[in-house]
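Support request, please re-run this one:
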Amino acid sequence: MGKNAQTVHASNGNEKSWLYRLGCNASAWFSDLSAHPYAQMAVLLICIAWFALGLATDLLTAALSILAISLSQMVLNRQNEREAEARRRDIAMHVKLDELIVSVRHAHNELAGIEDLPQEVIEELREQTLENAAGDEGATEMQRPAQKGRTDSPA
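Re-run finished. Output below.
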């Protein structure tokens, strides 16, 4: 990738700063670590030991509150990353399906790209497609008996 291409990516917002990437990586690592059952057991054991030793509970309460808020934010960050990845996969799947629709000779090309239409319009198109499919099946059933009696050899 040339220097001009890198400048374009940075100017359109696709390129993330090193600090942002570092924060994302740290958040991902810490949220994965804290989700491990051993980490959860460790927090529980620390709390039990804290109370058993008779240490000040104000400090423990503050630490656990900060930890809970931080972990909640980390989980939300991970969820946003997964949703962005799922959206990317969905878009790629729609492009592939659109290509198949366009390439099939008897397909209705107007169906390519309907995922951006309002839900009511999509449902209406679905009903029309089902009606067309039912009509095509009826026509096919009517053509089959006529084809059975036909021979391809000249009379």
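Residues 57-103 form the longest helix (47 residues). Residues 1-12, 146-155 have pLDDT under 50 and may be disordered.
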